[in-house]
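One-letter codes give the sequence; the fold follows as tokens. Both lines appear below.
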Amino acid sequence: MLDYPRPPFAEQKQPVPGITDAMTPVPDHGEKSYKGNNRLNGKKAVITGADSGIGRAVAVAFAREGADVLISYLNEDRDARETERLVKDAGRKAILVPGDLKEANHCRAIIAKAVSELGGVDILVNNAAHQATFKSIEDISDEEWELTFKVNIHAMFYLTKAAVPHMKPGSCIINTASINSDTPNPTLLAYATTKGAIHNFTAGLAQLLADKGIRANAVAPGPIWTPLIPSTMPAEAVESFGKQVPMKRPGQPAELATAYVMLADPLSSYVSGATIAVTGGKPFL
């Protein structure tokens, strides 16, 4: 097991959505550790939220496994360009597409870009998310509640609906859920609620698409060290982040990448409707 950082972490706060290089410590995305084995050779992947965190780690792993990657992100150009560099260094094609996923037309434009620039869509990773912390339900505005659902669940529907007509048998959809879909954090009420919806959406989608030969699965991360943490959580929560799980530390984005690769691998042809929990030892029921 790698000797990854453990809390307490240095006091740090960033504006939403946060950037990677400003974090202490800087997350590991598998830049030095991930070695590919051609498991996704020639595949074309769309990954939302691929500029940093889990999305970047998945992009690195997919590229080193032989896939071309469309990198969807909001506006974090500096982080996105680094992901682009890592994908290109692996010898694969990288397409950057900034924009707001809460807009249905932008979701459809992402898929259209993948079809025109990559030549299709074999893998769709719905990973981008919005979260914010509130101690009281009275503090959650209507706009905040609606924004969380638009980014976290509505966009997933728009992207999937647009992608499916371009997907051949053997293609797959991987949705990033959360341990919050099983054990919701009350201070993340809106976020946790959408993650429960994603879990249900994935289960229904797997059944709906089975006759097309398209698989749908989810990954449910526990506490993962990404820019979302210092940009959306109070200082005391950041300082002790990850301490609550049996491993007593947060996971690094690199530690999730293999779960996404496994679910995308054509050899996982009978795996659909599943949720892979990556939680540092905390049971996921």
